[in-house]
Amino acid sequence: MIRDFEYFAPKTLDEALTLLDKYRDECKVIAGGQSLIILMRQGLVAPKYVIDIKRISELNYISAGKDGVKIGAVTTHRAIEKSPVMKNGLIVLAEMEKRLSYIETRNWGTIGGNLCNANPAGDPAPVLMALNASVKMASVRGERTMAIEDFFVDSHKTALEPGELLIEIQIPPVPPHTGTAYNKFGIIEGHAAIVGVAFSITLQSGDGVCDNVRIALGASATTAIRAKKAEEVLIGKKVTNTLLKKAGETAMAEAKPLSDISASDKYRRELVRVMVARAGNEAFARAKQA
Amino acid sequence: MSKYSVIGTRVNMIGGTEKVTGNAKYTTDLTLPGMLYGKILRSPHPHAKILNFDTSKAEKMLGVKAVVTGSDTIGKKQGIWRRFPELCDEEILCRTKVRYIGDAVAAVAAIDEDTAEEALGLIKVEYETLPAVFDPMEAITEEAPQIHEGVELNINVNRHIEWGNVDDAFKECDHIREDQFVCSSQAHVCMETHCALASFDYNGKLTVWTSTQSSYYIQVLLMGMLGMREGDIRVINPYTGGGFGSKFELDSAQFCASLLSKKICRPVKIVLNREEEFTATKRRTPMYYFLKLGAKKDGTLLAKEVRVITEGGAYTAMGATALYLTGFFSSFPYKYPNYRYDGYRAYTNTEPTSAMRGFGAPQSTFVGESQLDMMAEDLGIDPFEIRRKNGMTPDYVVPGQAFIQSCGLHQCLDKIEAHVKERGKLPPNHGIGIAAYGFMSGGIFNWFDTPYSFSAAIVRINIDGKVDLFTGANEIGQGSNTTLSLICAEELGVHFDDIRIHSADTGICPPDLGAWGSRETLMNGNAVKRAAADAKAQLLEFAAAKMGVNIVYDLDIKDQWVHLVDRPERGVSYFDIVKEAIRGRDGEVIIGRGHYTPHRKGMISPAYSFGIQAAEVEVDPETGKYKLLNVTTAHDSGKVINPVGIEGQLEGAIMMAGGYGYCEDQPMHNGKILNPTIADYMMIRSLDMPETKILEIDTYEPEGPFGAKEAGEGLTNPTAGAIGNAVYKAVGVRINTLPITPEKVFRALKEKERKQKR
Amino acid sequence: MKKVVKLTVNGQPYELYIKPKTLLIEVLRDHLQLTGAKRGCETGSCGACTVILDGMAVKSCSILAIQADGGEVTTVEGLAKGNELHPLQKAFLDHGAVQCGFCTSGMLMSSKALLDENPNLDKQQIKEGIDGHICRCTGYNSIVRALTDVVKGEYKEVK
User: Fold this and answer.
1) At CA C127, angle to CA C124 and CA C128, rounded to 5?
2) Which of A102, A283, B499, B595 could pair with B456 in a Cys bridge, judged by C-beta atoms 3.0 to 4.6 Å apart?
3) Distance CA B379, CA B614 (A)
4) Segments forming the whole domain that contains residue A115
């Protein structure tokens, strides 16, 4: 059962930050609540104060400009899924959102809520990592930005400090000749990923040589992680299927998956190997066309 | 022109409009004035003595109106196998000992759910934990802790079925296979959890509204556990959100709500939450199978020996039936000249295992059909051919066990073989696997020890020709209200809309054993047909006199028209006859009665469905993941009474049966179920559901109403076996444990690769 | 501690005085006696509680009622027009897409939201649209057929 709490619905970001600063550890922020409500119903989380930011319109936007795409933290998954901004180099975001849970969850749940929940199997984290995204956080003391891979500290733990709120996700402009793909392995559609692989590759002008690559693994460690050694296999080299397979094998060793009721750690490693190669092929095909 | 005018027509289900408009009231939707909300406190230990309770703080809490523990009961144990008192081993509300994590120890009634839940936290129970055992193989050893007093080696039940002489027969065989399999548990996951609203009044009468598959069983079991008279308990079955075998035993919601209500004479509603539903009800029986199969080189099966150990969980429940049926259906659907089955059910400190759709036959079909395909491959015989060679035929007798009358297995084989041939050459990594099955249409063995006929019905014809049909049969979503109304209307000669059915209210309906074992269409259908025939006979008696027909002419009613069978144009309106008949009988309405209990029909069932299913999969050999592309089944359920209903049953079963093969499981650690949520318990949803096709085979079952037999459970049997065989056909690996997960397929493929390299 | 929450449900405005922790499903079922939406789980996974809020299919068990303040909710009780069933309701009945009925309310509301957003759904989109719902009885395919026929225009809505 949910414990009683005092409820605030600030209308502006400043109001929200003031409240957050006042109540700190005694409060929880709710946006879509698709994770939080479940935790509260199970009695795992029982805050004295709940600060509802869902209606703060200044946190709800998708804007595209010269310096890339900016998504407000309270933007719903469904809005991202359907946004005309998510095409070409960013189509992978729409594709990822489409397979995230179910429509009803996506209609109300937000990208910010998902990232702050920091589920190691979450879908947005590896994809945003592959897109070189950053997150902007705010508190009464000001704002700061960090690379998204620094945002995830541990399972269900982020770099947010008490009084701090995630307010924006920033995706830099997609370089030319870049393709990104997300491969999600599951037994039943809509369930959390058993392993997720996001692969973003930039080619040196259509000649098939890898200029830069970012490989991010989900559900393969206590947070989403970059498979940096696997990336090194590819940088500066001509991309071939064999090389992608080698990257997969390298990533397999970098992954630190857990065993649970869905899969053993050994199987997860094998999945990483296979999916890195597959996602790589998909991303490569896209990069050649981009 | 069709012989029948009502059965076989496509009608919207009775109760459907209420369901689509949100007007259908399920038990959880009901409220009564002064109603309280109940919650149950459950054991966190798999095995422990209860030393004492302290409920004082909970009782004093504001808003709490009653608290009960085992000391509020009359100290009885109950079980559904009443014929064997030693198998009635479950107190429900434990008095001195708990035997699994989830065993109920106390219950609270309060003014709202939150208060009730808080009050649970104030109840102090002192336990002395005992060593626990979870694995049935370990449970039957000397070292294992004894779970029930006086039950040596925790062997709860054993069953033996035998005919011929398997030991001699194996000597005649050209080829023998011995294989082992493990069949997993499965959760029913009814969308509506177990719930009850109990109202005990100051006159000592109890009314219980509950989600149940058998109002009668609940009434009688409550009687025993409360020390009341059967007639002082009324069980009413509102709209029910699924049963699948989980809801015909007395459960903790029903018992605790009744006990609480009895203590304070106020209505109490208890609705189990989903976690309780997964962990503190009952589940499919996990089984360890040892099979030995012997055949001649031409594919004739000569002998089969089956040994099974089942994981019983903490109480007997319906586990004894599952043990028996798995042994019987291990001989299905083939003619074995020699057969031997020995089954043992072991108590363990886990959630009790009991009845779930298929009742031991999904397990026996998975293992049997897997092994048969392996045998066929060993002998170089086509899988269809080996099944054809040995398949049951009409009027076959299973020695000492069963009389098969109608049997459409061979027509099913033909249809599916044609379907598979039509598919032609399959793309790489695709495979089609088949599995043959049969199932019962209701059980014969009276383990409940009821003095009543198994099914009964009353038909009442009113002055306006509208017919009230009273039956104890439980509508749980399977469409029995509709099917029985169709049967009644057909027999009586009226329209489907003329029937108004009243079902499963023990206060006004005759007893019926309930909706389990696929019995309603055949057993209750027969009772309804007889009751309608009785009412019709009374009407025709009057009509014969009124119409003054020559005695050589028979009268019948069809389409609301009472007429001469040979001269249908000569007749009178049914409505006129009814009016005059009632007036002619001093105003007494016409009441027809019918009942059905199978006699001299063997040990198992009066009739059996048959079928064969083909499942096509596409395997991704790099990951082991496979897609269920298509499941096509040819099913023989005799005459189809309710086509919309039957299609729903046959198609719907595939979701559950496919899940059993593909993804459903309840992994445990030290007796604790690790995935007791719908988020974690994997089930097939719409995106993973295969395309389904049902090919109906027309047969006529003499024992069934208008020739009908079962369609509710048979299709739960073959899918796991068909999937296993399909995966083998696709990528050449055989998985002998359920569920057949991608990881298992992947490991098997790696193993195969390693072996090939050597 | 309690707050005033205003909701329009099936066209009818309501003013409620509730604790902030009250879930939308509790308001609908317990306060307004609209028992069509069902509780099927505690993890927001089964879909039985689905209603339409401001045009979107949402799980009422996972939303605080206060978050819907000022919003418009449609439940299954609001589908039929007077005594005329909604095309979806008729289609479900005709196709046997209802058995035990416990998932039906949620299934219908998600279906309605899907069709309102895109009347020309293909089979794959229908399957994606109802994937959030567990139906233990029908195996989904009859529901997909019912929706396909509605999309085809087999059940013209009576104006």
Assistant:
1) 85
2) B595
3) 21
4) 60-171
Main-chain phi, psi angles of A142, to 5 degrees: 130, -170
CB B625 to CB A274 under 8 A?
Answer: no
- Residue B612 CA to residue C4 CA, distance in Å, equals 60
pLDDT at B549: 87
Q: Euclidean distance between the first and final Cα of chain A, in Å?
A: 51
The minimal CB distance from C21 to the residues A5, A42, A54 is found for A5
Q: Tell me how close the Cα of B689 comes to any Cα of chain A, in angstroms.
A: 10
Residue where the block lists tokens 């945003």: A128
The 3-class SS string of B545-614 reads HHHCCCCCCCEEEECCEEEECCCCCCEEEHHHHHHHHHHHCCCCCEEEEEEECCCCCECCCCCEEEEEEE
Residue B405 DSSP SS3: coil
Check if B114 contacts A (Cβ < 8 Å).
yes
The three-class DSSP label of residue C138 is: coil
Q: Over 70: is that where the pLDDT of C158 sits?
A: no
Q: How far is C64 from chain A (nearest CA, A)?
A: 8
What residues of chain A, 261 to 280, have a C-beta less than 8 Å from chain B?
261-264, 267, 270-271, 274
- Mean pLDDT of all residues belonging to chain A: 97
Query: Contacts of residue A193 in chain B, CB cutoff 8 Å?
Result: none
Asked if C145 reaches chain B (Cβ–Cβ under 8 Å), the answer is no
Alpha-carbon separation of residue B82 from A153, B151, B222, B447, B448 (angstroms): 59, 18, 13, 6, 5
B-chain residues near C94 (CB < 8 A): 12
Q: How far is CA A268 from the centre of its chain?
A: 19
Of the partner residues C44, C56, C61, the one whose CB lies closest to the CB of residue A107: C56
C3-78 topology per CATH: Ubiquitin-like (UB roll) (3.10.20)
Residues B579 and B674 grouped into a single domain: no
- Shared-domain flag, residues A86 and A32: no
Do residues A126 and A23 share a domain? no
Q: Report how many domains make up chain A.
A: 3
Q: What is the mean pLDDT of residues B472-483?
A: 97
Q: Which of A99, C45, C147, A189 is nearest to B688 (CA)?
A: A189
Residue B707 region by backbone torsions, left for phi larger than 0, else alpha for psi between -120 and 50, else beta: left
Pick the range with the lowest mean pLDDT from B202-206, B647-651, B689-693.
Answer: B647-651
Do B462 and B590 have their domain in common?
A: yes
Tell me the average pLDDT across B390-413.
96
pLDDT digits (tens, 9 = 90+) for A61-97: 999 999 999 999 999 999 999 999 999 999 999 999 9
d(CA A144, CA A167): 10
CATH number of the domain bearing residue A23: 3.30.43.10
Closest listed residue to residue B254, CA positions, set B18, B93, B430, B402:
B93
Which of A1, A185, A261 is nearest residue B623 as measured by Cβ atoms?
A: A185
Question: Which one of B18, B628, B686 would you mutate to disrupt binding with C, by most C Cβ within 10 Å of its Cβ?
Answer: B686
Using the beta-carbon criterion (under 8 Å), do A7 and C66 form an inter-chain contact? yes
Tell me which chain C residues have a C-beta less than 8 angstroms from the C-beta of A190.
Answer: 131-132
**What's the confidence (pLDDT) of residue B551?**
85
* Site from C41, C45, C73 to mutate, B interface, most B CB atoms within 10 angstroms: C41
Alpha helices in B398-524 (DSSP H): 409-423, 480-492
Per-residue model confidence (pLDDT) at position A205:
82
Task: Report the helix count and the strand count for chain C, using DSSP H and E.
Answer: 5, 5
What pLDDT, on a 0 to 100 scale, did the predictor assign at position A206? 65
- From chain B, the residues in CB contact with C98 under 8 A are 13, 16, 19-20
Number of residues in chain A = 290
The pLDDT of residue C156 is: 78
Contact assignment for A54 to C58 by CB distance below 8 Å:
no
Query: Are A65 and A160 in a shared domain?
Result: yes
Respond yes or no on whether ipTM tops 0.95: yes
